[in-house]
Design brief:
heterodimer, A: alpha/beta, Rossmann fold, two-stranded antiparallel sheet, 6 helices, globular, B: alpha/beta, 5-stranded parallel sheet, 28% strand
Amino acid sequence: MKILVSAKRVTDPDVKVRVKPDGSGIVTDGIDYKVNPFDEIAVEEALRIKEKLSGEVVVVGIGPKEATKEIRSGLAMGADRGVLVITEENLDPITVASIFHKIVEEEQPDLILLGKQAVDGDNNQTGQILAEKMNVAQACFASEIELAEDQKTAKVTREVDGGFDHVEVDLPAVITADLRLNEPRYASLPGIMKAKRKPIKEIELSAMGIDSDPKVVWHGFAEPPVRKAGIMVPDVVTLVAKLRDEAKVI
Amino acid sequence: MGNVLIIAEHKDGKLKKGSLAAFTFARQVADKSGGEFHALILGKDLGAVAEEARCYGAAKVHVADDESLSAYMAESYALVAMQVAKDMGAELVGATSTAMAKDMMPRLAAKLEAGMASDVLGVNDDGHFLRPVWAGNAIVAVEIKTAVKAVTIRGTEFDPVPKGDAGSELVTVAVSVDLGSLKKRFLQFEEVKSERPELTEANVIVSGGRGTKGDEGFKLLEVLADLLGAGVGATRAAVDAGWVPNDLQVGQTGKVVAPDLYIAAGISGAIQHLAGMKGSKTIVAINKDEEAPIFSVADYGLVADLFKAVPEMVEEIKKAKA
């Protein structure tokens, strides 16, 4: 079982980003980068499948040279090797899906496991576009994945509005990971040491022969509207009185 | 932009309220462009929904009513939607951002070779789509350069279209989906039944976080919620801990809500959570920690232990209502 996973380099999800005063972007000075949390879940799931069925887990990253760090995080968790597509550009989901498609054609994985969304762009598009490009099935927002014994199909539980959607997909397929698919492991010290020797293949985006002309372009950023400051109330009696008489919501 | 096609969702023979927000968006866009706004509904036995859908100002309502569409799958729905979009000359396809739309719209966009903007809040004078990024801590103006464009829109940003006369023309879509070719089989939908309103449709929401410590705390919140006719929400931490189902998650990676009243109990106010609720009209925060960031967005803050404060609130509200 060969599984392709993503490890997108994103700004630390726990840090509140600010918009640059001129609106040209967000302030990145002093901000740490981490693996997109949903990608981490995807990596973990791939490792669990590999541990059960044996096989290979390939971690793909797209970004500047520094994005090697996020691939190494995946390798330290236990993935086998990495692919880094080098670019300084902010890519739209169509281009990202095209890059993955190209790598899929080369690597011929049995399964592609991606995070359902990246917590910077919040697009939630890449997996779906990739599935369409590959002309395979998609199973997005997975909370459970069960591979058939013959490894030709997978049963996936999707957490959606109002309940659980159970589907079966033929492999290869694109599955995107939701929060409750698993709890990602921490890399062990030996894992981190081993990861340093695992191979990462580097490819320049410009050498991939992909149309990377952006179809969706970001033109400027603004701060979201700020809420008016509220008040503190001393006790429940006051709170309920305010809600009834002032806000008129109960 | 010319013609607009909105894919509307329905449940139990009725259009979902959320979809009416996308209709409003579509009418705004179509009014500006001079194009037509059409709606598409997909499923099986759609007679009643189709009649209802005629009442919201669409020029045409396309009805794809077929056995093969009885269960939702992105692959089959996107296939049919693509055909309708092409036939009616859609330059913009859209839907309100729901679990289904998030799943299907990017696939439909790819079929139409359309660039897509997710969770759109509005359109600026340049025709660029405004949307939140980085958990809503920045709003970016997005230009889509493809001939056909796709969007999901944030339901809380557009008032639902009021119901009018049944004026839209109904168009029957000739559906030919070969389910055997989809490489995917629908097995079963396991509905999680709840008497409480869905989060995106609730006027009041009572939400809990880590401070609820699990079942015990959520039970208290449920009592308050039921008294107020409210939906129950949760933070990612509470969902992650397995205390409540994922579809109760409010935040960046869950649902975005904007009820009249949002009561956050035992919620610290991580940026991921604030992203999903700071558009609420009135926000109440109850937290033991007076430094909790949730207080920065609250209209009314109460520093208290929710295990004491929530039962007290129930008593006080009962008194107030009596």
